[in-house]
Queue: 2 jobs
Job 1
Amino acid sequence: MSTNTTEKKWDRRSADTAERLAAASRYIGPGKQFKPEDTVALLEAVIHAGDRVNIEGNNQKQADFLAECLNKVDRSKIHDLHMVQSAVPLPVHLDLFENGIAKKLDFAFGGPQAARVATFIREGKLELGAIHTYLELFGRYFLDLTPKVSLICAYKADRQGNLYTGFNTEDTPTIVEATKFRQGIVIAQVNEIVDKLPRVDIPADWIDAVVQSPQPFFIEPLFTRDPALVTESQILLAMLCLKGIYAEYEVKRINHGIGFLTSAIELLLPTYGEELGLKGKACTHMILNPHPTMIPAIESGWVDTIHCFGGELGMEKYVAARPDVFFTGPDGTLRSNRAYAQTAGHYALDMFIGGTLQIDKYGNSSTATGTRVAGFGGAPNMGCDAKGRRHSTDAWLKVGKEMPSLDRQIGNMPRGKRLVVQGVETFGEGRAPVFVEELDAWKLAENANLDLPPVMIYGDDLTHVVTEEGIAYLNRCADIDARMAAIRAVAGYTDIGLQAKPDETRQLREAGIVKTPEDLGVDRSRADRSLLAARNIRDLVTWSGGLYNPPARFRNW
Amino acid sequence: MALNTLEFHLKIDEVTHSIDTPIHLGVVGSGDMEVLMEPKELEGAVSVRIVTPVAGFDELWKRVVEKFVSETLLGNVHLEINDNNATPAVVLLRLRQGFAEATGK
Amino acid sequence: MPKWKDLQEQSFLESDARARAIGLLDEGTFTELAGPFDRFYSPHLEVLGEAVEFDDGLVAGVGKIGKTPVFVVSQEGRFIGGSIGEVGGAKMVNTIRLAIEFHDELVTKYPDLSDEEKPVVVISFETGGVRLHESNAGLLAHAEVMDQLQKARHKVPVIALIGSKVGCFGGMGFVAAATDAIVMSEFGRLGLTGPEVIEQEMGKEEFDSSDRALVFRTTGGRHKYIMGDCNALVANTIAAFREAVAELAALPVAEFEKLRRIGSPEAVERQLRGVALAAEMQPKDARDVWAKAGNPDPVALTDMPLGEFLAGVKRLSV
């Protein structure tokens, strides 16, 4: 036994935290409350230069008041912070770098600030750690990127400091657990302080200080798609998806991306989907936010279970009234949880379907442009084949069985594969081709000194591409040459599509690797808005029996 | 700055369809177009006139209209299009809708 | 174009100008005037390099509803916001003029015609007013339309229909106000200065145009119905608008004077009482006025199903 043992200290983290909280104690009153006007001073007391700091905020709720206050601290004392956070959607998140308060960033999603992220990297104002997926970043919170101080947000606190995060619980449990159980400091902003919470989402002893912010936290209704804006082209694509994929594989466990194509699919379930006899056979279990466009399908009895990453403004009452479908607490309100939803999204889904800005000739796709470091949030975790998956489902097995190349990797061992589907019109906004020789992600990598081009979905994970020309069943291709040919065949009049050879395309169609709308028996002339179960937000309100309360910006009556 | 006008003729070998009555379809909204389809004796050919504010897509227009004509086996028709930046997918959609209306298919 | 029968249950909000024109009239009776095959498109847009449309975004024609000859004007919001330029303006002016001439000829020839056999004009508005690209011609067209409305007065009733996406704003808001009767759906909006322009001139605090709930409860069909700025509020189908037109078309022309909002000493008196009430109340929101009209729960009025709303709502009387 070494005689040094008695001298060795094993509680330096908690001692440090205690010291910082002691310095802040004069601002913190009963119930751990502090006054909004003391926020900057409190942050100056608990945060030290070079700390790893988390500001809560994904693509929905934002700890915006605390972020604004952090941006007002004395930068001679607090500088070179290492920000570890899901997203940087608010201008103030980047102002911290502009002002020298923060130096390094590890994140998952850039949102509206994506262009500034790229510029700041180039100008040396921001040192990029890495662009992660949400799960990847959450994982690192518990390993090598644990925050020392986290600034979080909740709807309500009680007089003891317990928190109610409710409908928009999102990332809070993950951040708090990582921070507090590594002896860090957690500061919460809440919209109101009440005597009794609907339920306790975060216990008070995991929280160090609470402030009622002068304004309720900012929250974005990011997942509301107005059915009025769904186009005939999107309806055609949705019909192809339903007939050529949902029906073909009878896919039950699904995540829908955020775009208009998946909204169109949701709105076709009670009409075209019903006609295809898919009710009960597809879309029974979903990982998604409470998309308003899911209301008609839910009301028509399509859906067994939905677990949510976050909430969606206006859907509170509707969700609370459908506890058989959504995960709700004893108090009756939804509890979302991004980490669990992403875990389900990674391991338990049979299909991820969404859109993208660009697909290259190999099938790699990205939403990155040459000047924006956007990140992909959760999409890559769902838009990939989970290599650790060990349970089987029919759809997953069928995709694996169709793969002619599997035996070259694992011999005669059977294995399934997740459906990863990208649905795109061959030309996007401003007639920009979606199919390209080389992704703009390469340019971005160069412009922002990234190690690698940011790819949302890699070509080997992509199983199906759907365009107005038809569906490419990439999982049925034997090798990369066949995959490239199949991609060309559905790439329309883009430069990639124009390289398609008629003979080759005919062979692919004969082999069932490419199917046109005609091959699938999809009648183009039915791709009409009258096929949508709801054609505007007002219809969704009616479907919901008045329970859906759309945000002001979506109301047109 | 004036509008671009693109005019060309297409002829395929086995013309089997023409139309009896003129058809108008579509609205020149953003990213959309309108088309007039009129029967016209052109010795089996299709004459096309496209008016668009967007320059530089002449080849693309020809390819898209060619595809439409070859899949419908259309002849003796004059097509006149006012475009406002429609994508090839929308162009084909409108042309097919127009053809369906003209032929009752 | 979908079959006439299918048009009837089609959403008025989503219908293009031609579908509205055809669907409002009896099946098979619509004859288009200066239609797309006549290729009267805007020479000004062409010079400016802007996309043109064969009908210049305005459908004009004539047909029948029952025994009533109906002259119809229908504006297309998807083409440059339904804006009125030289060609579309001229089509509008001359359609009304034609209706008046037809009326005069008809009553001279057949002095015993019943009310429902005399022509009416129906204007389906979807416009922000003058097309800025051809402003002088567009402004002139507005003046000429106003002139025709005066000439039609006491002869040919002019009925305004407002239920399309763009609403009815700008100079065409004045034109709509000068018609004899206004029919709206809850998706219709009627005003003079558009929401975006108010915000631009007066600031976001005064009027936040991105707050569509605010915009609609200040300019939308339900509010206009409570205020008496429109005469009827109908469901969002072509059939519902058509039915409202059919009911109005059978009225004697003198009855339309009671439906008008401006143009008589009584109407002016009433408008002035409204102004006085506003000055006294200083309402902060349309809902204050709804409450004043006698609606105890104004907030609930917005989302209430239409039938329930029409059955229970109290309209402002001044």
Note: Strands of chain C lie at 31-33, 58-65, 68-75, 120-125, 158-162, 181-185, 232-234.
Job 2
Amino acid sequence: MKNEQPVGRIRFMDQQRVNLDGFAVENAELGLTALRSPADPAPSLVITDGRVTELDGVPEAQFDSIDAYIARHGLDLAVAQEAMALSDLAFARLLVDPAVPRQEVVRLSGGATPAKLTRVLAMLRPPELVIAMTKLRARRTPSNQAHVTNRLDDPLLLAADAATAAAFGFREVETTVPVLGDAPSNAVACLIGAAFGADGVLIQCSVEEAMELELGMRGLTSYAETVSLYGTEQVFTDGDDTPWSKAFLTSAYASRGMKMRVSSGAGAEVLMAGAEGKSMLYLEARCVALARAIGAQGVQNGGIDGASVAAAVPGGLRELMSENVMAMMRNLESCSGNDALMSESDMRRTSRTLPIALAGSDFVFSGFGSIQRYDNMFGPSNFNAEDIDDFLAMQRDWGIDGGLRTVAPARIAELRREAAQACRAVYAHLGLADFTDEHVELAVDAAGSKDLGETDTLAVLVAAQAIRQRGLTVVDIVAALDECGYFHEAERTMAFAQVRLSGDYLQTSAIFDEQLRVLSLVTDPNDYGGPGTGYEPSPSRQREIDAIRQARGVADLRAEQAQFSVPLLAAAGPARPGQGPRDVVIGVSPAVGRDVWRCLSGLVVTDVLREMLAGLEEEGCTGRVVRFGDTVDLGRIGLAAARLAGSGIGIGLQGKGTALIHRRDLAPLANLELYSVAPSVTPELYRLLGANAARHAKGGTPDPARNPYSDEAIEARYHTTVIALMELERRRMVPGALPEELSLEGLT
Amino acid sequence: MIRALSGKVVDQLTVEAVRSGEVGLADLRIHPETLERQAVVAERHGNPQLADNLRRAAELTGLPDDEVLAVYEALRPGRSTPAQLTEMAASLAGRGLPRCAALLAEAAEVYARRGLSA
């Protein structure tokens, strides 16, 4: 049998980007199954004398270290019996029932085993997951976290980018390094930069534990989240930790006043060939139960590095979102993933993130790449700098708060400059490194580290070592900012170091707002209970969400059009009926030559008229231009023009560039030729329209024009401009106005 | 009134104080009483485990950084024998860290059974 090539339709489909993604056949043995596996245990909980003696089918003597920790610390035995007795269906319905408050779900979940919550969550369909997340997240106000990194660990660029991220509204900034030794420098650069962008931004430098803890102890960073948990004992041990070592580390962070959450999520065990045939959701249920048991305030989950593993199996995206909801059920902060590019397809990666953005989470992304993909040293996030405008538009489209806001381009420029200059000044003041003026300029303007050219990466490493060896702390940074004249930022950084000492931000889901107030489970509890309740952006926040920088109104368009006005098309008295058989009238709309000067195609109206007049002339006809002030309707303008013309043929032209040929005996909505796609009409086509009008006038055969075709979203691009242009036309309309002849001076 | 580990009241931690060299690292460290207060808040908000964690943290405020890291290292798999963990637990208990001690004692028992000891 010959190996036949697929037909063109399939070859074409094969070429689409989604087919770069890997899709796995479901295979429970390998753990390649999202929500359920034959090897998942049936939920069970036996309590003997106040002690858990069986957990999800495993008797106490056989508890592995994860079971043992959960059994001893993770469950509320007072509600266990009640919770475990609930049917999966009845439990699942509690998650979406608006009459059941969040606290009730949290209370019952406290007594539910990992296998129980797995089965309950597997029952929720996607819109139910959205409702559950809306209701169950701990903090009322959603927020977002940014990645700020670059390939070079360049401090000036990090400072400029941290300022940018803070200005965009991210409340946490997470950095990391390609070169471990650079970590202290990255932390300092982000700390300085963020202080320019906004008050109260939490900084994290994700590196190995000892270094991360050290940076936190010195006040250079303020939270940690890459403390990993795994769902099987083998993988946990391979990760060189145990539940007890992680519990201790959790306390160690808190003892130095640092906020901390753990990381887990689907796919990690599968990738390490250690899933033991269990479903991804069940393994994560163990992680989340353990996170609660060790006293972490929150969980970063929803796949994380393994997100694309979950996405490769059926129902994988449901699984990822279920992980987040599970953390919320256990009364923990959810930092909801979306931080790894899970597909080559823009549609698939949007589909992955959208439901979480709609529901709102404590952190919609556990790292939105605020820098370009190539600069993201965590690996590209699901959304990156390439997508910030998309995300801002999505917020506006749905009227949701995803934590971001528009910043005026001039403000971004100013902040980047201040942050880069301050970073340079602090590094120089502390004797860490000397950067040139040119370097500052490059960092301010850079869209990414590739725009910096060659930099001295060794200088960064030397600076980082100096920060470490000299034991520099946030106090030294405050002093340096102060002495370099950055008083406001010194105050801001000091105020932040001060409020940390209250410990309020160690509570679940805590962030600072820009007045340095803590928003958390305690101070800003989610009170969703159906429509009309729960978080709603304040009117000022809503304006922030709505006011994307690309939005245009009629006034903007009027100003833009005015830039193209020329002293042509002067009114030259009332228009009279033409006599000659070769007289053709070009009728234009009310605002042409007054407020409207440029068509959607970018051609100016006078050039369009020149082409039409030239086309008429080529075919031996004479054109006149007449403005009709009593209608904006192109058919009526064209017909009125035809009725004025000696030949009985008229051309109608709206200021936006739509044009047609009309004849005096046709109905208004009929026409001989129409250019309907104004943005795509070329000068040649306008000339052809003139020539064809002349051919009609002479009774000859026109050369039919083909409307240019485009596969672009022409309507999305131009409809708002059309509406504003038509408004300019309408405002110039005077009912009963008589047509006026316009001067051809300068046009022929 | 919130105090830093050093005992200094947080309101005194100003840029002015930094300028005159009066602020050190201990002034930026959280006070155990603050952690205890937060533990009470966590309990009241349905998270006794977070409360336990904050109370262990309160104990650890008194332990130097390198010792904290040493205990963490000892708890990692294959690093310590059950006897070493038990001994370390006793030492911590004797120094006023009973909750941390209990965590280590429990680890010693489970590690022995699950082969996580040295």
Note: DSSP finds six helices and no strands in chain B.
